[in-house]
Amino acid sequence: MTTTLTDAPKAETPSRAKDLRAATHGAHDRLDKRIMAAAPFADRARYGRFLLVQHAFHRDIDALYDNAMLDGLLPDLPGRRRLGQIQTDLTDLGIAIPAIDTAPHFAAGAEVDLPSALGWLYVAEGSNLGAAFLLKEAVKLELNEGFGARHLAGAPEGRGLHWRTFTAALDAVTLSDAENERVIANAVAAFDRVRGLVDDLMPLPEAA
After folding, report:
1. 3-state SS record for the chain
2. In the chain, at which end, N or C, are there fewer CB atoms within 10 A of the end residue's CB?
């Protein structure tokens, strides 16, 4: 049988987002399983622990949303910020916004390393894409986009389109091979950071 050029499989378009998904799959999967093992939706108290994890992580990256360089590369960057929503969610549940002594991973006003920022923002944006399931669970605790679960709300244009516009911009950034490796390393570091926060702030039910 002769294979013509039209029969040949098409080469897949290179995608930094797809490369990141593949490279971080293990870290992401382990984190998801650890979070769910902590039963974050068993009651509002345990959900509050989940909010504290979210608060600490988004505090780490909050300065990125004010960065002019990143804003020029990524669509609606300020509108993707979620720290304020998380703080309001904590207040809704009567949980004091924690005072954290350590400096955030990205300091306000500091020069930002682009590959590092892209790795951490990839993790943040991916978590928002997957938050639809979490929001359904939060509703069972009588929480919603207007009370206690604001930070889990989808974008007005829909989660899928919101994610695709981000990944298209992420793919379009020109980086060297070495810089691409640093994007991956920083995405893994971001997942590891969240895992460390979960271990600290979300003990398993039998250890609580």
Report:
1. CCCCHHHCCCCCCCCHHHHHHHHCHHHHHHHHHHHHHCCCCCCHHHHHHHHHHHHHHHHHHHHHHHCHHHHHHCCCCHHHCCHHHHHHHHHHCCCCCCCCCCCCCCCCCCCCCHHHHHHHHHHHHHHHHCHHHHHHHHHCCCCECCEECHHHCCCCCCHHHHHHHHHHHHHHCCCCHHHHHHHHHHHHHHHHHHHHHHHHHCCCHHHC
2. N
C-alpha span between 183 and 179 (Å, rounded): 6
What CATH class is the domain 23-203? mainly alpha
The pLDDT tens digits of the residues spanning 18-77 come to 999 999 999 999 999 999 999 999 999 999 999 999 999 999 999 999 999 999 999 999
Within 13 Å and on the Cβ side, how many CA atoms surround 153? 19
Q: Identify which of 89, 73, 160, 86 has the alpha carbon closest to the alpha carbon of residue 125.
A: 160
Q: What are the φ/ψ torsions at residue 136 (nearest 5 degrees)? A: -60, -40
Q: How many CB atoms lie within 10 A of CB 90?
A: 20
Phi and psi of 52, rounded to 5°?
-65, -35
Q: pLDDT by residue (tens digit) across 178-204?
A: 999 999 999 999 999 999 999 999 999
